[in-house]
Amino acid sequence: MRRLVRHGLAGLGAATFAVVAGVTALGASTTPTVAAPPVAAAATGEFVPVQFVPADPVADAERAATAERDTREADRARIAATTAQAAYQRAVGLGTQGRAIDERSSEIKAEIKAAKAKAEAAEAAAEAAEKKARDAAIANEGYTPGTTDVREIARQILMNKFSYGEDQYACFSWIIERESNWDVHAQNASSGAYGLPQSLPGSKMASVAPDWRDNPATQIVWGAQYMKSRYGSPCDAKSHWESAGNY
């Protein structure tokens, strides 16, 4: 037992000595050591390299995909915004055009209305002028210009120039039918009586107008005047003709 204790104490002393020796050796300067060079402070604005960190392929791929998706969405949003702006500008333009069209439409409607009123006024003035001319011609000739039927000319002349009605016209027509059968150029070969009323001579009708040879109106006016001045009226002339065979 004593022997084991002595051996243990001896081992402990040896260990203690070794530790002390080691500490002494660390604190001694007999073996020189090289210190790391001091890191100089970076000047302002000077590039300071960053220690490279190895990339993570999966994270890099996710970031790239996200960036690409965001870029596409931004492009689509920009295109949509541009399209919407263009549509808005077109709408504004169409609205402006629409207002201009409405304004022009109103102007055109006003112009059409004014032109219509002017045309109607011109038409009314033309009709009034025609009526005035027709009335003047009737007052002068006794019948409506353009009338070609000889019997109708006679009816109008007896009404307009002599204020005769249908009864006097009937008597006048009765005499003219027997005298000339309404032939403007009828001429009696033996006596030389001429025209509708068989004026003798025919030149007597020149007292009405110089166109007595061919104008039925001139001959009718002369015949009606003759019947009125000699017998009082066509019907009175008819009564005389019926009794005497002439008038």
TrEMBL record:
<keyword id="KW-0175">Coiled coil</keyword>
<protein>
    <recommendedName>
        <fullName>Transglycosylase SLT domain-containing protein</fullName>
    </recommendedName>
</protein>
<keyword id="KW-0732">Signal</keyword>
<feature type="signal peptide">
    <location>
        <begin position="1"/>
        <end position="35"/>
    </location>
</feature>
<feature type="domain" description="Transglycosylase SLT">
    <location>
        <begin position="171"/>
        <end position="235"/>
    </location>
</feature>
<dbReference type="InterPro" id="IPR008258">
    <property type="entry name" value="Transglycosylase_SLT_dom_1"/>
</dbReference>
<dbReference type="Pfam" id="PF01464">
    <property type="entry name" value="SLT"/>
</dbReference>
<dbReference type="InterPro" id="IPR023346">
    <property type="entry name" value="Lysozyme-like_dom_sf"/>
</dbReference>
<feature type="coiled-coil region">
    <location>
        <begin position="105"/>
        <end position="139"/>
    </location>
</feature>
